[in-house]
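Here we describe the complex-level prediction in full. Unlike the single-chain runs in Section 2.1, the two entities below were treated as one system.
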Amino acid sequence: MNVKQAYLFSYNAALCSGWAYVFIHMIMTCVTAVQSGLSLTSPTTLSLVWESVQVPLKVSQSVAIMEVLHAAFGIVRSPVMITATQVASRLWILWGIVCLVPEATTTSVVSLTSNTVFSFELSLITLLTAWCLSEMIRYGFFACKEANMQPYIMVWLRYSGFLVLYPLGVSSELAMVWLALPVIRMKKPLSIELPNPVNFSISYDVICILAVAAYLPGFPQLYGYMLKQRKKTLSSTATASDVTKKKTA
Amino acid sequence: MLDLSFESFKSSPGSGSLSIHYNSFSDYLSEAIMKIVVKNRGGANVLPDGILLSDSATVKDLKEQFHVLKPKTYPSRQRWTIPVKTEGSAGTHQKPTVLNKDDQKLSDYGIVDGSTLIFKDLGPQIGYSTVFFWEYFGPLVIYFLMYLLPTRLIYPSYDGPQTDKSLTQTLAMLYWVGHYAKRIYETFHVHRFSHATMPLFNLVKNCTYYWCFAGYVGYFVNHPLYTSPPLMQTYIALGCSLVCQLCNYKCHVILSNLRPPGSTEYVIPKGFLFNYITCPNYTVEILGWVGFTIATQTLTAGIFTLVGAGQMAQWALGKHARLKRTFNGKNGMPKYPRRWIMMPPFF
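The structure predicted for the assembly as a whole is:
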């Protein structure tokens, strides 16, 4: 193993552990809450979860900026722009939405159905579940690759996890924006008001809406692309050690 | 004259090989026919039986004949090049010759019976004038409507008193609308485009740019909470802009008279500001928008000016490089004089 491989292995292993830490703490908090009689959608549970994971979450997600540098310096064979866009969107959701107005995003849920018997709520918990699991799979997969191991289970997870996690993640992120917008409109953070000498104004809520409009249309295309990749990779690998296809981070 | 056009010889669409095009009766008599092999850039054959043309066929004939064989691909969508010889000294990257003179004979390019030509489909095309009209008409209308229509319609979130537009706002609107009216006039009466068409997607791209910026600038200048700079500032700045617009018009007229009609040869521009700057039309255009920005003291006008200047700088670099390359002082060509590219004293 050369220096580059050792570094990348350490990086991916470290981040995998970081996200695992976030996930485990979230689970533990949820279990404790449910045992105390609270539901998973109650504001108390969500606040407890946020309190227990916010620091490791912020660290793990922010460190991902390194991946842009990896791509820029050629340490990893990923296109810089795509990596930068992905990291930027995650950082925007974390810092620009969830952390900006936590009173809305870490205490509320978005109900997808009005059925009282069977309902599904998007919340901080579904967001963290999607993020933690997909990151653990992703970093775990790359760590194994740097260690020249490619157990089939890792390949399978990498190319199957997205089927559920990607829609879950995107809809949770949208739910966070949905919850945050009313508070953003009220508090007007990061905004410039008229009148002023240069006749300029910025409304952060408009920026949020534009950001969603920008990345939403990409979702079906990206999902379709990943489905194709899945078919290609999983059908051609009957055994573990044959997988040598290049994948973007 | 006997009608020996391809209509009478045309066989069923798609078969290709039996359609023969004659330019004139004497061509028919001389009956020298050549067959052109048509390949795409991947090396595959585009027409299985090639194209049959008269010996004296022109590029226009080639394009029209191809259009007959492939009805969807009208002439302005076709790009024809002569394949480069791959053998030769290693490293010499020759640019393939493009058949872009419609009235030039194919034989003048050295094309004979059995020659191969490379075909490329440029995609759906749209006329230059059409694109220019729509990309300039939008900003004219959008800004004007933002000025004219009731405040509560354009600025629904504003709930203060409804006031009339100030003198500054009116002057700004007149400058903006006048500018785009001038551009539309120039599109139909001044500019001479060296290409007839451009890709259809450019219409979407260009209109998005112009229309969005028209909205972005117009929104703030016409806002009920707009703060005017001192009136003298507006008068002086817009006065300068007006002078720049007149210079810009003169530059455009000089450019349109640069080439004799129908020619696509490069000519070294001379006279007026062209003696000192390669693209003075861009220079005065940018300065005009700088004046508008100062006159309105609006940040988004400044952003619009900067983005436009950036794009024009790119174009100016290309033009300057092209002119220097063409007029290199060798083989009897005059040498391109030392001039600023677009913005003295730095660029």
